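Work Package 4 report. The design task specified in the project plan requires that, given a folded chain encoded as structure tokens, an amino acid be chosen for each position. We show below one input record used in the internal validation round.
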């Protein structure tokens, strides 16, 4: 029972981290949005 609860908690934490990283990438908060025209040539 404890293993199931621990696994569920870890799964939720991992999902939240992935969601945050995806949101940051989408909004350009991690330094590069992938659109160099917006930041005038980041590469």
């Amino acid at each position: 029972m404890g293993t199931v609860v621990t696994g569920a908690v870890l799964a939720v934490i991992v999902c939240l981290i992935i969601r945050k990283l995806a949101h940051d990438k989408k909004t350009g908060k991690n330094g590069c949005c992938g659109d160099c025209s917006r930041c005038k040539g980041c590469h």
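The chain has a mean pLDDT of 79. Validation will be extended to a larger panel in the next phase.
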